[in-house]
Write a structure and sequence with these properties.
The chain is mainly beta. 12% of the residues lie in helices and 32% in strands. It is built from two helices and eight strands. A hairpin with a 2-residue loop joins strand 5 (78-84) and strand 6 (87-93). It has a four-stranded mixed beta sheet.
């Protein structure tokens, strides 16, 4: 609150820079209250409060997300589709991949105000099938016995 001055409601158009972090500030020079004794107008500072994203968490310029695949793809290898900020890409899953393994996708994170781009770290969750048919159970039992 400004002491000794009246509050004025004014609309300002603000360009929010891509990659600004939670708590980051934007300075609008000369958009504040008039100075004392005819001095120049002051500055307005806007502090950013970023809402959490439903898919990604941010750590610096790196983004973290989770992706899932079935246990057959994890065991035999294959590809899954992973969403990035710039669209979906194909991620190669090597044979024998374990639950929780992390994959680093270089340059797929956030680009900050200085032009530095982070990575996307994808943590894999392997889904175990439910409601198997009798034949599927037999095949898994044969596999376990082999």
């Amino acid at each position: 609150m400004f002491e000794g001055t009246s509050q004025v409601n004014k609309k300002l158009n603000i360009k929010i820079p891509a990659g600004i972090e939670d708590g980051g500030r934007i300075r609008l020079s000369g958009k504040g209250h008039p100075g004392i004794n005819g001095g120049p107008q002051g500055d307005v500072f806007i502090q950013m409060n970023i809402r959490p994203h439903p898919r990604y968490t941010r750590e610096g310029n790196n983004l973290h997300c989770k992706a899932s695949t079935d246990f057959v793809t994890a065991a035999l290898g294959g590809k899954i589709e992973v969403n990035t900020l710039n669209g979906a890409i194909s991620l190669k899953i090597p044979e024998g991949t374990q639950n929780g393994r992390k994959f680093r996708l270089k340059g797929k994170g956030v680009t900050d105000r200085k032009g530095n781009t982070g990575d996307l770290i994808v943590q894999l969750a392997i889904e175990t099938p439910q409601n198997l048919s009798e034949r599927q159970k037999e095949l898994l039992a044969e596999f376990a016995a082999a």
